[in-house]
Structure formats: C-alpha cells, structure tokens
Amino acid sequence: MLKECINNVRKKAPLIHNITNYVTVNDLANALLACGASPIMADDRDEVEDIISICGGLNINIGTLNKDTITSMFLAGNKANQLRRKVLLDPVGAGASRLRTDIAVKLMREVKFNAIRGNISEIKTLAFGSGRTKGVDADLADVIREDSLDKAVSFIKTFANEAGCIVAVTGQIDLVSDGNQCYVIRNGRAEMSKVTGTGCQLSGIMTAFLVANPDNELEAAAAAVCTMGLAGEMGWSNMQPSDGNSTYKNRIIDAIYKMDGDILEKGARYELR
Amino acid sequence: MLKECINNVRKKAPLIHNITNYVTVNDLANALLACGASPIMADDRDEVEDIISICGGLNINIGTLNKDTITSMFLAGNKANQLRRKVLLDPVGAGASRLRTDIAVKLMREVKFNAIRGNISEIKTLAFGSGRTKGVDADLADVIREDSLDKAVSFIKTFANEAGCIVAVTGQIDLVSDGNQCYVIRNGRAEMSKVTGTGCQLSGIMTAFLVANPDNELEAAAAAVCTMGLAGEMGWSNMQPSDGNSTYKNRIIDAIYKMDGDILEKGARYELR
Amino acid sequence: MLKECINNVRKKAPLIHNITNYVTVNDLANALLACGASPIMADDRDEVEDIISICGGLNINIGTLNKDTITSMFLAGNKANQLRRKVLLDPVGAGASRLRTDIAVKLMREVKFNAIRGNISEIKTLAFGSGRTKGVDADLADVIREDSLDKAVSFIKTFANEAGCIVAVTGQIDLVSDGNQCYVIRNGRAEMSKVTGTGCQLSGIMTAFLVANPDNELEAAAAAVCTMGLAGEMGWSNMQPSDGNSTYKNRIIDAIYKMDGDILEKGARYELR
Questions:
Q1: Whole-angstrom Cα distance, residue C220 to residue C212?
Q2: Whole-angstrom Cα distance, residue B98 to residue C72?
Q3: Which of A231, A196, A224, A199 is nearest to A89 (CA)?
Q4: CB burial class (10 A; 0-12, 13-18, 19+) of residue B214?
Q5: What are the Cα distances from residue B25, in Å, to A181, B163, B201, C24, C110?
Q6: Which residues in chain B have their CB less than 8 angstroms from residue C68's CB?
Q7: CB C15 within 8 A of CB C38
Q8: Which pLDDT value is given to residue B132?
Q9: C-alpha closest to that of A5 among A247, A222, A245
C-alpha cells in the first residue's frame, strides 16, 4: 500500500546525499525535510565518498553539472554501488547539450541506478542517445497524452528493462515502471510546470522513498510520484486570488509537509498496466 | 505599446540561457516562468555554446562569478553574437572588486550586448572604469533623484551611445535609453531594496522581452522595467500586517505571474525624454 | 541591553561578506536584509580580499565547500584578520566527512575567529577533532537537554576558552559563551529544524550583530540568537492551518524583518550562567 511507503519515510527519516543543481537546491532540501527525510548536499570529490557512506541514498541531478561535480557524480555513484546504497539519476536537460547527453548516458553505463526520473524528452534522449529537449522542459511532440498512452507505456517498460532499473517519466500523465508493471498516475496539475524544481524535488523524495522501502521499490517510486502530484493538487486548493507561481511553490512543499499515509492513499489516482 | 511587449513574451515563450549567480537563481527562474518565458541555467564551458544555440537569448550576471564561469561567459557571449541571439549584461557588484570591474569591462569590449542593466553605481563603474559601489547596492551619493534627474538622463544617453546598446539603470527612478531617447520610469517601491534579487530577476525578464520583441528593443526593455516595478507595487498591495521581505519576494513574483498587457499598460508610469 | 544590539544593526547597516553554501544562500541574503544589514556573496580567490576590504565582517560557512572556495576561505579569513574585521565560522557538517572536519579545524588554527556557531555535534567535532554528526543535523545522543545542561555549559565554556572566541551552540536550548559567562537561551521552536537554513541565517545575522556592536561581542552574539529564536516563535504564531515548512521559512524571515529592539527585549528568554 502506498500509505506504508510514506509512513516508512517518516518513521525512518533517511539521510539523502544530493549532488544537484544550484537552481532548485533549497526547495529540494525543504521538500526532503517535508516528507520526513534529511538532506545533505555535498559535491566536492574529496568528500562525496565519505558523505554517501553515512547516507541511505544518493540523488544525482545534472541540472547545472560542471567538470568538478561530474567527477564527484561518478565517485559517489560508484561508492554508493559498493555500499549498496540506493541511487537515483535525474538527467535534467539531457538532449539540450552534448555534454548533458553524454554524461547522463555515461552515468547509466558506469553506475547501477535503482531509478531514473525525468520528463519524456530526457528519457527518450537516454533511450536513443540523442534528443530534442526544449531546454529543461519536454518537447511538445513528446508529451504523453491519453491517445498516445499505450505506446508510451510500452516504451517505458522496454526502456526500464534495458536500463535494468525503475524508470519514472513525469508530465501530464506520469508513468513508473520496473519493466514488468507500469503505474499510470493521474495526479498533479498543469500549473506545476510554471514552478521551477518540482521535478528535482520529486527526484529527491523518490530517493528517500526507495531508501525507506528497500524491498518494495516499484511501489515506493510510485508513491513518491503520487505524493508530489497530490501535493500539487492540495497546494493549488489553498491558492488565494492574488497568488501566483512563487506562492504555489511554497504551498506545494507545505502540502508535502502535511501529507500522511491516509491522505495519500485516498488521493492517489493510478492504475497498473 | 508596452502591452504588446509582454503579450509577445507570453505568446512566444522564449527560452533564456542564464549564466548567473547562485544567490538569486531560483527566483530568477520563477520570475522567467512567471512572465511566460522558459529558463535554463548552464555554466560549464563544455556546454554553454550548445545551450545558447537552442535559446533565444543569453543573460550574463556576474553576481558570483568565478574563474570557471568567467570563461563560460565569454564563450557563450561570443557564440550568441555569432548566432545573433540577444545578449544582456548584469554587472552585479562592478566596482566592489577589481575582478568584477575588470571582467564587466572586458565583457563589454569583447561581446556585443543588446542591453546592460544595473544600478547607478555599477553603470558608473562601467562608464568610468572604476567605482565606489557599496557591495551590490548603489552608493548613496550616486542615487538618482528628481533634482539630479536631468544630469542622470544625459549621462545614461551618453553612455548608451558609447556602449552601443540599451542601458537600463534601476533604482528609485529607473532610466532606459538607447542613446537617443530615454524612458524615465517611476514604478516600483522602496521596499523592493530589502528583497534580494529583484534586479537579477529584472535582467532575466528583460532578456526575454528583448527576444520576444526583436525589432522594438527600447520599448521592450522599458516594458520589462515597468513590469518589474508594477509587480513590486501590486505585490505590496497584497501584503498582510505580519508579512515581511521574504513574503514580499513571493508576492512580487506572483504579481509578475498575474501581469497581463492591460494591467501593464494601465499601471506603467513613465515619460520619454 | 539586547535591544541596543539590534538597534545598532539597523542604524549602521553593516555590509557582510559571505562565503557560504548554495543551499541556503538566498535565505541568508534575505535574513541579513531583514535584520538591517547588507549581504554580499563572493567566493572567487581573485576577489575575496577586495570584497572583505569593503565589508564590516566575514561569515564563513562550509556547507558546500569545494577546493576552490576552501582556498578563498583562508584568503578572506586572513585578510579579515589583517584588517581587524569580525569573522565568524559556521562549521556545517563538520564530522560528516573527513574534509569538513579537517578544513574546519584548519580554519580555526589559521584564522582568528570572533565567533563560531554550530550545532552541538559540529562543535564537539571541533573540540575533539572527530565527531559523529548525522549529516548536517546534530546526533541525537549529543542534544542538550535540561538534564544535561550543566555539563554542556561547562563544555562550551571550556571550548570557548580554548578557541579564544565566542562559541554559540544552537539546538533545543542555545548556549553562547565567551569562556567566562554563558547565555542559556530558550527561544525558538522545534519545528525550525524542519526548515533548511535557519542555522546558516543565524550565522549571517550574528556576524552583522558583531560588526554593529564591536565592543560588546558576547551580548551581540546572544542578541542574534534570541532574535532568530524569537522570529521562529513569531513566525509560528502567524501560521495558518494549511501552512507547512516552506511557508514557515518565509514567516521566520518576515518576523526578523518585523523585529525591533522592544519586541526582542520583551521576548528574549535567557539566563546567564
């Protein structure tokens, strides 16, 4: 049950190591605290192996990668594998530059991930080795809609099998698959795309859910996606007439803070395919 | 008309490449989303040329420059010029250190900018090669007031001519000139100076306005300044008794999100000199 | 009197140089503005000596240290000492990695600090050269409670004597000592630990209080701690039913913005031991 997944995060309070971008890092930290986890950010090559050693999981986000942090991503990822920590990849902007595509693909080759989370254009870039990402947003032609859903589910299952890990694609409709089954999730609101960092927050939260539910990875990843989407709905319901995207950002994190197992179980809208 | 300038941003949704500081970067991203543009942040030398290639414009902000990002600023700026993308310089803290002054001046020499936006002390530093900036705020002796306005307008026109681009000086009174004409803008509130990053946000928004209004640069830059100032007024009108500068920050971005052409046209307070 | 300490910050508006982490930097900037100070962030080795020269104080925070910023911390710290500027160390995560512990200890050896502020696990790491920090949070076994208070006061006094500067340990109960006296402060709320960066904000504010009250360092540091804790209480009193940790973050900074000498004097809860 999804409720157990979030309850486990709150009970175990996992410490999550993040090598992430400087754009959304503060919101990521507060989102991790909001769901019951503890964040630590560290990206120097001389400390990332120490840091992952005291953490339950590692969240690698390439949103503002640079030559120094790239080195740290590989060091931390390999150490996490050695220590059997959970590791997640958020390939922000893969397809937008050769560097991002190459590093994301190389990370997939050299690090064993438990999950990869991105928008559909980023995931297609990983699957095909090149892409047409519109910056950090999904290309319109790629967007998963009801009429292209069957094809998308099939694509995600195939890619999850190839990648050997859970793949989560978020957008209008969210898909989470381990290669066998696929959660099709319809939580969230379109206005979330006007808030920077909801994807980055989700990747952090998903890492925490994986750590707190080690033997139930697929459901844990789906529970994280439902938590984020539902928080977007709850946050929106608290919006006042003069509120815009900046206040919405706060209300979404606030809603994660207020989320509990019962709210999640009741509000999650998904089917299994 | 100013209204067309913002309507074009919302219609065209330009993608803006930002090489910027890590202090205000999240607010910059949300402000760009709020006005209808899309942000991407990327500062590694190995990707900035790729990134500017898929973007409509480049916003260079030296707020926390370092040896690596300085290299990237020149690479991206030159590539933007080759590709005829719009480029804006925000010389944050020019005058506060030799490094900032030197890099800002060197950027002006080697990159062709469409606009430069700063406070009066920063702009004077660019004009005279040295300055007396009080950190990242304007020096009190420099502040443009009604009784020093004529002199300031004349200075900005001269400097815009020398620089060969639009120059926007923001403060109590804002000036935007292309060397011939000068918008004198009286939107905004003094309390905005207690919120970090409103200048950085404006530089990003201005880049988006320039991209979406390529043949109407002066008016586009002025429309961006009016949008930011008016958002400061609208945001303030929504303040509750216990609200302070942090909530004000959110309310300003919220107001940008709510801004449309008619609100802007009606609320903009400017004269042309 | 505490009230004079905050009044002096608002009157003198000290400029504070911060070499800090990218997680909480925006909140730090707004918290400094909220208390009446001016922030500047600069971490490149080629400018930190210039920047500290125009500032009243330096706040060194190792939260996301890297090889480049480490060099800058030593350069800026030494220059600050030469120029007799106030310098504060926030050893974020000392004990969580060998690098953080080593750099924090080395900074203490090579730079003369006016104050060190951290949680109890970080401070124990500095005192004993190794620690068991849980990431960036205090280890549960270390937490100062009423029944371990006498021992903690004695430890802090001893360590402040050894370090030759003010030591502030914040947590459930806050302790601020110069080696002779120790303020025992009971402001604040437990929910502040669910907001990232309140410690970082306090370190910045404390630097500003030290600069504005140069001959009254112990009381200034205690006043900063009371200000932050009281802001946490005031911010909480403004929470609405749907508000969570993200809105709480804003309300705390808002409360600093609203704080004045009389509110502080009346709300501060401390004893001297």
A1: 8
A2: 16
A3: A199
A4: middle
A5: 39, 27, 8, 12, 33
A6: 66-67
A7: yes
A8: 59
A9: A222
The band of A132, judged by pLDDT with boundaries at 50, 70 and 90, is low
Q: Is B22 helix (H, G, I), strand (E, B) or coil?
A: coil
What pLDDT is recorded for position A29? 98
Which residues from A are below 8 Å from B243, CB to CB? none
State pLDDT tens for residues B9-39. Answer: 999 999 999 999 999 999 999 999 999 999 9
B54: number of Cβ within 10 Å: 16
**Between A and C, how many CB-CB pairs are < 8 A?**
106
What is the number of other CB atoms lying within 10 angstroms of the CB of residue A223? 33
Over 80: is that where the pLDDT of B57 sits?
yes
CB contact under 8 A, C26 and B21: no
Residue type, C268: A
| Fold that domain A2-272 belongs to in CATH | UDP-N-acetylmuramoyl-L-alanine:D-glutamate ligase (3.40.1190)
Q: Which of B56-65, B94-103, C37-46, C126-135 has the lowest mean pLDDT?
A: C126-135
What is the identity of the amino acid at C19?
I
Tell me which chain B residues have a C-beta less than 8 angstroms from the C-beta of A66.
43-44, 68
Strands laid side by side in the C182-185 sheet: C38-41, C15-19, C57-61, C86-90, C115-118, C166-169, C174-177, C182-185, C270-272
Digit-coded pLDDT (tens) for B156-167? 999 999 999 999
The nearest CA of chain A is from the CA of C25 a distance in Å of: 9
* Strand positions, DSSP E, chain B: 15-19, 38-41, 57-61, 86-90, 115-118, 166-169, 174-177, 182-185, 270-272
Residue B182: band (very low, low, confident or very high) from pLDDT cuts 50, 70, 90: very high
Q: How far apart are CA B219 and CA B7, in angstroms?
A: 13
Cα distance from B263 to chain A (closest Cα, Å)?
14
* pLDDT, tens digit, 9 for 90 and up, residues A25-71: 999 999 999 999 999 999 999 999 999 999 999 999 999 999 999 99
Closest-CA distance of chain C to residue B178, Å: 30
Least CB-CB distance to C39: which of B65, B196, B247?
B196
- Residue C177 has phi, psi (to 5 degrees) of -135, 150
| Closest by Cα among B14, B15, B20 to B59 | B20
pLDDT over 90 for what percent of chain B?
93
Which long-range CB contacts under 8 A does A123-128 form with residues at least 24 apart? Answer: A123/A91, A123/A156, A123/A159, A123/A167, A123/A169, A124/A95, A125/A91, A125/A94, A125/A95, A125/A101, A126/A91, A126/A94, A126/A159, A126/A163, A127/A155, A127/A159, A127/A162
What percent of chain B shows pLDDT beyond 70?
Answer: 97
Give CA A35 to chain center in angstroms: 14
In this prediction, residue B124 has a pLDDT band, given cuts at 50, 70 and 90, of very high
* DSSP 8-state secondary structure symbol assigned to residue A43: -
Amino acid identity of residue B217, one-letter, is E
pLDDT, mean of residues C238-261: 98
For residues A248 and B203, what is the distance between their CA atoms, to the nearest angstrom?
A: 23
Q: Please answer whether residues A89 and A114 qualify as being in contact, where contact means their C-beta atoms are separated by less than 8 angstroms.
A: no
Where do runs of H (alpha helix) occur along C25-119? Answer: 25-34, 48-54, 67-82, 98-110
Q: Which of C34, C52, C63, C77 is nearest to C137 (CA)?
A: C63
Q: Over 80: is that where the pLDDT of B196 sits? A: yes
Q: Do A40 and C93 touch (CB under 8 A)?
A: yes
Cβ–Cβ below 8 Å for A256 and C244: yes
Task: Give me the pLDDT at residue C132, please.
Answer: 59
Those residues whose C-beta lies under 8 Å from the C-beta of residue B10, and which sit 6 or more positions away, are: B35, B36, B260
The predicted complex's ipTM stands at 0.96
pTM, to two decimals = 0.97
**Nearest-neighbour CA in chain B from A39: distance (Å):** 18
Q: Which of C23, C32, C40, C79 to mutate to test the interface with B (most CBs of B within 10 A)?
A: C40
For A178, list phi and psi in degrees, rounded to 5.
-105, 10
